[in-house]
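Worked example 2:
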Amino acid sequence: MLISTRGRYALRVLLDLAEHEPDRYIPMKEVAERQGLSLKYMERIMPVLVKNGYVTWIHGKGGGYRLGGDPAQFRVGDILRLTEGDLAPVSCSDCTEGGCDRADSCRTRPLWTDLTRLVNDYLDGITLADLMNGGSSLQ
């Protein structure tokens, strides 16, 4: 599994919005400058975050973006699945709906299924609030 810049940037943008004046709409240019990210690329990520309620947006003077709720309600796993799709480390780890003709006899399938579950459980156990506090749920 390789998390793309799309997923990593989405997390950085959401954390930035959570940490900087969460009650004010922040122009994306400010976030891009603070994070050292391409404004043009960020503008391609923001619509999916708005559509799914992670951020709210106002156009025009005084407009910009702000986090769409409490940072504790946004799980890293959900954000990454939204921006990346499936987080499975191998394409055959979920052999449902005819995706794998060897599902019944594959001796490695349990390994990949368990790893997929562990990755998802781990990422679902971390919120933006956890990241803001400098940690994760890893014990």
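The mean pLDDT is 89. The first helix runs from residue 5 to 19.
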